[in-house]
Design brief:
The protein has seven helices and 20 strands. The chain has a five-stranded antiparallel beta sheet with strand order 6-7-15-11-12. A four-stranded mixed beta sheet has the order 1-2-5-3, covered by helices on one side. With 314 residues, it is an alpha+beta fold. The longest helix is centred in the C-terminal third of the chain and has 21 residues. The chain starts with a helix and ends with a strand. The structure holds flavin-adenine dinucleotide.
């Protein structure tokens, strides 16, 4: 064992209650692939997070952050470093006037329902996205939502108010709306680890909240009809290209006859061309190879270069 690992091991051993070794990443990603993380740290408080970050920094070990693992493909060989996952004590939520305040590990669907229970709307877009608040702000997740009158595209940036985050040295930062830049499926959060977020939502009457609840049911039904929601996947693999006559990456892949293409246990979903599903036997390498094949074929047939939305943990 080299000096970095010895030092990481001894520092993380002092955090024994929430750090362990050789945790399989396939257990923590919705795609269900990924070998072992050399160290897996699951702090349950800001103090434990700070201690972890300082320990990792002083050992000089590589560090990755994993939320719900719903937009990640983890390497078959695992990760030779520390994977940090905010523990379930970071999944709290509360409301204060029209503000929805939550921990970085809170799950989006739960937040949608919690907001509506408190007569707060505009978070409907998040009802079917199986990610955490931290991961969703990091990648500015978004989807079709409901504004009380009509369906509309909405994302994490839309009602974002402020956040609390830690840097890799273990220092705490409070950022306001104007401090964070967002674009389509991107943010400037970068290396920061989001531990808390606040969204300014729309107050609703009881009648309006009931209408928004109906909209959520419709949004979820639409997902069940158009996405492989019960299969192992990482959601949309590619961003929607901004090209004339292109209604989205999924539609493009289908139009080019690439739906259902397979490598090993990984297959382009027969339900939605922008999803790759794992039949239970896929390795990360199958997924990567399938992605490369689809990208080459789309480029060859249409001249469009697909850009990846899914992230790699390697
Ligand atoms: C069935 C299905 C449907 C989906 N539908 C949609 C959709 O409609 N729209 C959409 O945008 N996405 C969708 N996704 C993708 C995914 O759920 C979102 O991108 C989600 O926001 C990822 O959050 P996560 O917690 O799983 O992040 P992870 O996948 O764990 O991580 C993604 C990135 O965020 C970073 N990260 C995670 N937690 C934190 C944190 N606390 N602080 C800082 N950085 C962090 C990670 O380091 C990584 O770079 C779908 C996925 C599935 C499986």
């Amino acid at each position: 064992m080299n000096a970095v690992w010895e030092s990481t091991q001894s520092t993380l051993e002092s955090l024994a209650s929430f750090a362990q070794q050789n945790e399989l990443l396939s257990r923590h990603t919705t795609m269900r692939v990924g070998g072992p993380a050399k160290f897996w740290a699951e702090p349950q408080s800001e103090a434990e997070l700070e201690a972890t970050l300082r320990a990792v920094k002083s050992a000089g070990a590589p560090l990755k952050v994993l939320g719900a693992g719903s937009n990640l493909v983890a390497n078959d060989a695992g990760f030779e470093g520390v994977v940090l996952h905010l523990g379930n004590r970071f999944s709290w939520q509360r409301v204060h006037d029209n503000l929805l305040v939550c921990g970085g590990a809170a799950l989006l669907p739960k937040l949608t329902h919690f907001a509506l229970k408190n007569n707060l709307g505009n978070f409907e877009w998040a009802c079917g996205i199986p990610g955490t608040v931290g991961g969703s702000l990091w990648g500015n997740a978004g989807a079709r939502g409901f504004n009380g009158r009509e369906w509309e595209s909405r994302d994490a940036a839309a009602d974002f108010h402020s956040l609390v985050a830690y840097d890799r040295e273990g220092a705490r930062h409070e950022l306001q709306r104007g401090d964070v830049e967002f674009a389509y499926r991107r943010s400037s959060i970068g290396e920061l680890i989001v531990t808390e977020a606040t969204f300014a939502l729309k107050p609703l009457s009881d009648e309006e909240a009931a209408r928004h609840r109906e909209a959520v049911k419709e949004l979820l039904q639409k997902r069940r009809d158009s996405q492989p929601v019960s299969a192992a996947s990482a959601g949309c693999i590619w961003k929607n290209p901004k090209a004339p006559d292109c209604r989205g990456a999924g539609e493009l892949i289908e139009r080019l006859g690439l739906k259902s293409r397979r490598v090993g246990g990984a297959q382009v979903s027969a339900v939605h061309g922008n999803f790759i599903v794992n039949d239970g036997s896929a390795r990360a390498n199958d997924i990567l190879q399938l992605m490369s094949e689809i990208e080459s074929e789309v480029l060859r047939q249409s001249g469009i270069q697909l850009e990846r939305e899914v992230r790699f943990l390697d």
